[in-house]
Request: fold
Amino acid sequence: MSDHDQFAFTDLLDEMEAAERGKLDEHRTKLQGWFDMLPPQQKQQLGEWMYRQEWLTCQALSAAACDWYHSQPEQVAVREMVAGLTAAARKAPKEAGS
Reply:
């Protein structure tokens, strides 16, 4: 893969990450809007339930699921490829006018 191809691929990965961040921001905004529309009593009940009973469960489940997902061979291969391309992009001088 040429340096130009590596830069193009790195740029593509950056764009994909930015799009994913945008989706997550949109999801949080929608969820916040839904929560804001709840009556105070429901907000109270949901807050108490998440705080007391579910927060640690959600954290532990998230950690377990993410650890498992990121340990899968295809995910490891993707992370290694991205790390290699990022390292190569940092080492290679930028083309004039880029």
User: Anything to note?
Assistant: The CA atoms of residues 65 and 97 lie 44 Å apart. The helical segments are 3-37, 40-71, 73-91. The chain has a mean pLDDT of 82. The chain is about 90% helix and 0% strand.
